[in-house]
UniProtKB/TrEMBL annotation:
This is Fic family protein. InterPro entries: Fido (IPR003812), Fido-like_dom_sf (IPR036597). Residues 341-467 form the Fido domain. It comes from the Bacteria.
Length: 475
């Protein structure tokens, strides 16, 4: 079955508030689990994904899992209406003990046993519905908006920041939160009866590109995006000396908080920075424990087809595809020279990716997933990262492991203030291309969230890279 994933995305991103407003769509949460079982596609739940080192990647089984997810989604859409399209949006819900959990992470990860799979579908639908109901409460708290321009500016800024922060905090997959955030802002414009019939263009013009990282937004990004939208709607901009403290935990300066000393900034209530797990420390332990030399076999290049999988992923970026592809051109040229992978090289590519004149190593802790993940900083971090990059040429470690390890190094060392996922993809490309390998398919690798805390998970990335290389060679 050929599934039109682009059509599904367009359908989701075209949802209006009338399509999803809980007041217009009656819903019985107690009946969801039974109804999901009644609507489940005939033929049963497909077999779950299991990596087989002998057979490798099984495209037929993978297609069957995605076809089942598509059919399940169509059944929910037919029964509940268009609002149900959000069940795969990966917006999290809370467990009885208060923990945030994403119940559906896509067909490959979430199809397990039949009962658990159907429970996950029902849970994802319930979480999406509760998110929509939460939006109703946010809308009510911020309406009606004042009419006096300066008061309206402050109100719009607060509303936009609240919506962006709410969506980002609920998202369990950092690269997927942005479409839901855009929708929530457009829905509020609709509910607030903002004149004009092109709210898409208004949102894109004011916050488009503000949140370009694959991780949840920094506090400064939330503040500046909210300010941009408020200015566009009211014609008011803050005075240059209108300083205000950054109340998020990230420690990054903003246009309106550069005068505020770091020590004077207030941490977000409920998230004491010292207690947030340090995922970089966890990764460095995992890096030492993983069996890099043993989990994947040695692979020699060349291995490539007419298709370039990483280039395809970068080309699909909404706002900065041209810059990303230009950086990839630099990577190809550097790989042809067969030189070492260094931070200086990464920074050269990153300047092109971000369109900036400098891309230094970060000098403070970095944060992701709404402040729930911390990547700590200390003075020895740049040199430690440089040493890790140097290991990408270690002849004792097979190419798939070296490529996977450097990809995860960039993700978890988080060296730049923005664009680390793109930097990781470019580093992976460089290590492979230097040995004559260009993956013909890379989306399953680049669009999957990999763990920082599990050595077996890290080894699984190496095996997956080996599988992608073998598939490229086969084709």
């Amino acid at each position: 079955m050929e599934i039109d994933f682009e059509g599904l995305r367009r359908r989701f991103e075209s949802l209006t508030w009338a399509d999803v407003d809980p007041a217009r769509h009656p819903f019985d949460p107690d009946a969801v689990h039974d109804l999901v079982r009644a609507l489940a596609p005939a033929g049963g739940v497909p077999t779950p994904y299991r990596y087989d080192p002998v057979r490798g990647y099984d495209p037929v089984a993978a297609d069957a899992r995605w076809a089942w997810q598509w059919a399940m989604g169509e059944a929910l859409l037919e029964n509940y209406g268009p609002w149900a399209l959000g069940w795969t949006s990966q917006m999290g819900g809370h467990t009885p003990d208060g923990a945030l959990i994403v119940r559906w992470n896509g067909a490959q990860d979430s199809i397990t046993t039949p009962d658990a799979t159907l429970d996950a579908v029902a849970g994802a639908l319930l979480d999406w519905r509760r998110f929509l109901e939460d939006l109703v409460g946010i809308f009510a708290r911020h309406l009606p908006l004042p009419t006096e321009p300066h008061a309206a500016f402050a109100a719009w800024e607060a509303t936009a920041a609240a919506l962006v922060a709410t969506v980002a905090a609920r998202s369990g997959a950092d690269e997927h939160w942005y479409p839901v955030c855009t929708l929530a802002l457009k829905w509020f414009l609709d509910v607030a009866e903002v004149p004009g019939d092109d709210h898409d263009a208004l949102v894109d013009a004011t916050i488009g590109g503000q949140f370009s990282s694959s991780v949840s937004p920094q506090g400064v990004e939330v503040a500046d995006g909210a300010e941009s939208l408020a200015a566009a709607l009211t014609g008011i901009t803050p005075r240059p000396d209108d300083a205000w403290p950054d109340t998020w935990p990230q420690d990054w300066p903003s246009l309106r908080s550069t005068e505020i000393p770091t020590a004077a900034r207030q941490a977000r209530p409920g998230v004491p920075p010292a207690t947030v797990p340090d995922f970089l420390a966890a990764w460095r332990q995992v890096r030492q424990a993983a069996r890099w030399a043993d989990v994947a076999g040695h692979v020699d290049g060349p291995a490539r087809t007419a298709r370039d999988g990483i280039a395809e992923v970068l080309a699909k970026r909404k706002y900065d595809a041209g810059r990303a592809l230009a950086a990839l051109g630099l990577v190809r040229a550097d790989a042809a020279e067969d030189g070492p992978l260094t931070f200086a090289r990464l920074a050269t590519w990153q300047r092109e990716v971000l369109g900036v004149t400098a891309a230094p190593f970060r000098t403070t802790s970095a944060w992701a997933r709404g402040g729930r993940e911390r990547y700590a900083y200390d003075a020895e971090l740049p040199s430690a990262f440089e040493a890790c990059l140097a290991e990408s040429t270690d002849p004792a470690v097979p190419l798939p492991s070296r490529a996977a390890r450097v990809y995860l190094d960039v993700l978890f060392f988080h060296p730049f203030a923005d664009g680390n996922a793109r930097s990781a993809a470019l580093a992976l490309y460089f290590v492979l291309a230097r040995d004559g390998v260009v993956l013909d398919r890379a989306a399953p690798l680049l669009m999957t969230r990999w763990p920082a805390t599990d050595p077996r998970g890290a080894e699984g990335v190496a095996r997956f890279v080996a599988t992608l290389i073998e598939r490229t060679r086969d084709r």
